Amino acid sequence: MKENVQNNLSSELLTRLNEIGEAEIVVGIPSYNNARTIGHVVRAVNAGLAKYFPERKSLIVNSDGGSNDGTREAVLRAELDVDSVLLVSHPVRLVSRISTPYHGIPGKGSAFRTIFAVAKHLNAKACVVVHSDLRSITPQWVELLAKPILERDLDYIAPYYLRHKYDGTITNSIIYPITRSLFGKHVRQPIGGEFGLSGRLAAHYLEKEVWGTDVARFGIDIWMTVTAIAEGFRVAQSYLGAKLHDAKDPGSDLTSMFRQVVGSVFGLMETYSSVWQAVNGSQPVPMFGFPFEVGVEPISVNVERMIKTYRQGVSDLREIFQDFLSPQTFQALTPCAERSGEDFRIPDLLWVHLIYEFAAAYHHKALDRDHLMQSLVPLYLGRTASFVLEVRESSASEVEQRIEKLCNVFEAERPYLHHHWNDRSRKEKDYARTN
Length: 435
Known about the structure:
Elements: E1 3-4, E2 9-10, H1 11-20, E3 25-31, H2 35-52, E4 58-64, H3 71-76, E5 95-101, H4 108-121, E6 126-129, H5 139-152, E7 156-162, H6 169-183, E8 185-186, E9 195-198, H7 199-206, H8 220-230, E10 235-242, H9 255-271, H10 273-276, E11 283-284, E12 287-288, H11 303-316, H12 318-324, H13 327-338, H14 348-364, H15 369-391, H16 396-412, H17 414-421, H18 424-434
Parallel strand pairs: 3-4, 3-6, 4-5, 7-10, 8-11, 10-12
Antiparallel strand pairs: 1-2, 6-9, 7-9
């Protein structure tokens, strides 16, 4: 297909968009082999648009990554007749649907780029993105993600979910605390997956040189969140209830995603170094929706396997860790590895120092960055095992309090990061090593 270079849209898709003209709301659904669930997602989105935005012209865009299980066909044949209880009585505008393949490197980023380009082309005021594997999506999600954009002049709405206490461990132990402490905003799910954004922010994202990079694979969610905060866009979050999807044991093979997501955060720390180094303190962002208790699906974890991986990592990677970790931090790893069973713990202060020293090592290129991120994985698994053991008998609210405590340590130790990040002697040492 002939490509439109500026918007990354095929000529066929542009023809279809020109027929539509404009749309106030664009809802994007990225997909890859999601035929089993995507029909439900499309129906929920259509019901939400019909109930909450009946007077606004809308478009549902399925941006598909080459599915071979009938995903695109499932979108186009989704039955959009909904129960009348979900609809308002006055006439509603027709909701159009488009299913189109995306182009670019594999990953959500390329799907998002297509959705944002469609939103820009149609002069959309609001753009919403939801995953195609959701089992808990309701029509109200569309309202909660789009309405603050349309009526409150906000730019970015992150999701706020109630999740199982063992779900989202990368977010809970690294991404949320470090984003909050450095950029000063309490966005609880900075890599949540569902979000709403203004048309102007969608257009702004399209101008960035990120779409052909590895960030567009697994790191696009955190990139979007940090970019919005760091560049002064108005950010909030909406409570969506439970997120039921195909969650995984945090001890299973999440290595590739972990490296991409955490590596993206470290890269963003470089990009916006002048921004976060000037931030002082943190504050909550506006919350929309009514928080309520919901049931969440249990997640089984293999704590023993995670502890074993931590111990093996500390043993096998000693020379690597010793080369860039401070003596105090390096020496604290072994006593943790020697603890067994319920006594295994990695204290908050040690964990925060580890993350900050790894971020500084990434900044100074103290080690090949892929190898650096790989070496952090066993330490992350150890920290996850420690967290699981600590909160086994804790309620959801107690777990949130525990995460809040960790965030406070991240914020209190910001001077520690500043020291390692700006250490000129370390820069000169690392430069000499790599040259």
